[in-house]
Design brief:
Blueprint lengths: L1 H14 L4 H35 L9 H27 L4 H12 L4
Length: 110
Amino acid sequence: MGGIKKQNENIKQDIKVKGAADQQLKKQVDQEAVMDLIRQLVAIVSALLPFLAAVSLLPEWLTEDNLNQFLIIAGLVVGFLFNVYSIYKNHYSGPRARLQKLLLKRKGLK
C-alpha cells in the first residue's frame, strides 16, 4: 500500500508545472482531454442510437428534424460561450487589474 502512495506522490511531482513551456504543454494536454471526452460521448451516443432502433426503443420525438434543430441550437450555444469566454479572457478588469493600473500610473508607465 505504501508503494502506491509513493507512486502517486511521484506522479504529482512530475505533473507540477515548472516553466512557461510546461504551462503551454499542460494547457495543450488539458484541451486534448476535453476533446477526448467529447469524442467518447459522441461515440457512446453513436453506438447507442442504432441499438435502440434495433430493439424498437427509439423515442418517437427523435426525428431528423429535431436532431437538425438540436445541432443548430448546440452550434449557437457553443458560439455564444466561445464569445463570452474570449471577452472574459481578453478584458483584464478585476480588482488586481485596477491595482496594477494604479501602480503603473503612479510610475508614469501608463
